[in-house]
Amino acid sequence: MTESTGQTAIAHTNIALIKYWGKADSALNLPTTSSLSLTLNEYFTKTRVEEAAEDTLLINDLPQDSQRVHDFLNVLREEKGDFSPVKVISENKVPLSAGLASSASSFAALTAAVAKYNGWDLSLEELSRLARRGSGSATRSFFSGFAIWEKGSNDHDSFAHEFNVPDLPIALVVCKISGTVKKVSSSDGMRRAQTSPDYDQWVAESAKQLDEMKQALSQGDLDRVGQLAEANALAMHDLNLTATDRRFTYFNQNTMKVLEQVKVLREKGYLAYATMDAGPNVKIITNQEQAPAIKDFLVERFRKIQFDIATPGPGISYE
Question: What enzyme class is recorded for this protein (predicted)?
Fold first, then answer.
């Protein structure tokens, strides 16, 4: 262990353009599909670990139930060898549990901070593999720009890696429809979605969309990137509506209204495609030139919704 009193790591959240929605192994957080994401500059988690009498968690200066973090830290202890209890101090610049991937940046930052704190010399891919046990989406938050989480077949080959493409002027207009905790957690939502009679078809189609997405990104075809991301996301949310185990939706009335305006924007000639994770918030894929105009268009129509512009972000960093 280092002689310093603590270690801080910063991880940025990511938005999946080809989604992770379903587990092949719940205990190991192995996904049913590979996924592809964009790391975002504007949303991040800064996490510090310090020696303590027991594992504890503070988020934005408020004590939290630390059971999930404690269980994850024990996974790291089993994997890498025992280490003393730690106090986890997390500063989250992402709305919690609202479909903006707060758990992704949180568990990526925690994994990196603990590894550095204990002096483990680990590759980004190994950090990604370890973080998967805390949150599947965290696998992708170690990398700048685009990342692919390979679904793998076991605990050792399911991790993410960077997907290098030519510089793309991609941007997201983030519509923060709700920042409240969602009623159906991502884990429960996935489990229920997997009871949909359409689930196996979605898995097969997602694999094709991933291949097409990689090609579109490599060619710099942002319009095709948007088309694929929107189709993949809408099909994912359709699974929730067709689940045989208590069908549900993350959408609310404003979600539907914003989605309608995305169609209007396209009719007006804008590059605008929607994607949504497990929550009501809509992210509109566009380019950096058009993003401000799209934001202004939406602000005029939705006075009570907060709109931000997000751009490609960096990989893991330390303080």
Answer: lyase
Distance CA 93, CA 116 (A): 22
Give the C-alpha distances (Å, rounded to integers) separating 8 from 13, 38, 43, 47. Answer: 16, 23, 17, 5
Out of 166, 185, 212, a domain closes at: 166
Residue 97 pLDDT greater than 60, yes or no: no
Q: Domain of residue 72: give its range.
A: 6-166
Per-residue pLDDT band for 124 (boundaries 50, 70, 90) equals very high
Tokens of 261: 């305006």
Within this chain, do residues 11 and 59 fall inside the same structural domain, yes or no? yes
State mean pLDDT over 219-230.
98
Task: Return the CATH number at 294.
Answer: 3.30.70.890
Residue 162 shares a structural domain with residue 176: no
The answer to whether 198 touches 239, Cβ cutoff 8 Å, is yes
